[in-house]
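Can't paste images in this forum, so I'm doing it all in text. The chain is below; anyone willing to post the predicted structure tokens underneath?
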Amino acid sequence: MHQFYKKYISVIFAIAFWTFAPLAIKASTISLNPDRISVQVGESFSIAIKINAAGENVYTAKMNMAFTPGILNLSTWSFNDAWLAIRQNGYDSFDNAKGTLLRTGGYPSGFSNAVLFGNAKFKAQKAGQGSISINANTFVYNELNKNTYTGANKVIVEVLPVTTNENNINMETLTPVPTELPKTSPALFDIEASPGSSTTTTGGKYFNIAAITLLVSIIIIYFIKRRHTQKKGGKV
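Text version of the structure:
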């Protein structure tokens, strides 16, 4: 009789194993996209979080995310419209000082493929290498309320210092400033100045000579005419 029960129990375990073994093989994963980012200090970027149910219907997800504090700062989070957010203590929180984000949501109709869970937007705070990952304390529950989550990828974020326009100037394209101005011949009325001499104009010189010549000519004509008049008056 004892042997009969042992065989009976062995058969039950065998049936249970072959019945539920395929279910145990199926596992959910979380993917973060993109998985490598390069930004400058002060710039923002977004990460898409997807849950891949791998063929098994799942209904609830509790995501525990970690990111590098000081280098990265969480700005906003938005659920995919198909999810119902659970806003309760222990299910919904974030802390930029510690670099943690906790979000929990339910998917009423269930899904068995890859579905977008939500989007997280970050801002680069200072230069350095940061990362975004999913902690082990994450759950994706099936219809039997069993956790099917097995793992997720990691995002590497390279934060570069801000570059200014001064660093991007191409020195070869700059036109050199001439050290000496080109010499040009003076025009007719240009002012010429030399050390120890007064400033005059070329046109002024010609004007002075003409004026003196005209004045001398007028004086000579005046005296000639006066003398001729005196002679003529003496003969009367």
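Helices lie at 2-25, 202-234. Residues 4-25, 187-194, 197-201 have pLDDT under 50 and may be disordered.
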